[in-house]
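Q: Could you fold this chain for me?
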Amino acid sequence: MGNQEIAIKIENLYKRYRLGAIGGGTLTADLQSWWAVKRGKEDPNTQIGSENHQKHGTFMAVDGIDFEIYKGQRVGIIGGNGAGKSTTLKMLSRVTAPTEGEIKINGRISSMLEVGTGFHPELTGRENIYLNGAILGMTHAEVDMKIESIIDFSECREFIDTPVKRYSSGMYVKLAFAVSSHLDSEILIMDEVLAVGDMKFQQKCLNKMKQLAEDEGRTILYVSHNMSTITQLCNRCIVLKKGKIVFDGDVDEAIKIYMDNGLDSEIRKHYDSYVRPSWLQLDDLRITEAGFMEKDSNIYFDNEPILLNVKWRNKKEIHNLCLRWEIRTSDGIPIGTSLIENFYNSDGSNEGNITLAYQFPNLTEGEFISMITVYYKDEFGNNINVDCVPGPSFEKKLVQEKKIVWDALHWGYVEFGEPELKG
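A: Sure. Below is the predicted structure, expressed as structure tokens.
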């Protein structure tokens, strides 16, 4: 990165937690855990269903990571639950100490790790603004200069002199972000908290963070499971898995790795061994195959029709079966959906198939994944899902280059036709 100034440097960082040790949150839970271990029984307070469910031993939440973040960068950190994202941010914010390793920070940090962090519930919103300013080393006069813009941004003026314990989670987030973004800190750390706020305020926050990084040189660290906000905000992305860095670099590439859904080149998929989602209760019918017809690849050009063939096997009576084909970007954002209703009836056990022709002339270039759902409507008109599987992926290409290079990430993946010129 040349002579750019380093804001954060992490070297050989580890965070180890002891499993099955005292620390259940209450004295009663700790005594239960201690007595169970003493008798050689399973700890009744250990979380079940976790990949790291053990009676004894240790769990490495962060397992030897290294990275440098430069001043003014907007860095996303993504990964599955338990990947070490929040633990890393807590160590950076000095909420918890690393087991091993070194953290070097150049500048003051303002953190939003969870709703309400850094606020005293008995103090009013106004008092908490001054409290946060004092924690950052600002004087009363310095906070005075910024407090009106903080209150305006938070949209909480009506309740600013009310104790924050009476705030809703959305109001907490609005005030907390307003405080973090307006006070004098060089590094802003955000952990998923914007998901609590409404969509309009979330966009307002994303725009503000971009402006802080570009105009004031603030460094942003942002953890989220919302890939759309990662794409909008970040110019670099780190992917964590089981406490280790598996990728650090381009945002689009990072999201593909995290979603683990690089374009599948198979033009026909088989579902005999596919494990259905847990919310799917019915097994009246199962899709056995789905794929593209009359093609030896999954690359389609401008107005080339896509012929999708779906096969199924039903073991019960089926009436008025419907099919939904959902097209999504490679990071899972829905683009559009096509429905066909009441196309199949069967009085008993049977096998069937259907071939459907689709055209997407306004879809921009790119890679797309899909989902196939079959359902029927109950007597009240509600959709009752019978089966749901990931459909085949495809790539859309243009026959000839356009005069305008389409920026799909920011403009969307559906291109509307040119307007008619009047006058």
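A (continued): The chain is about 25% helix and 35% strand.
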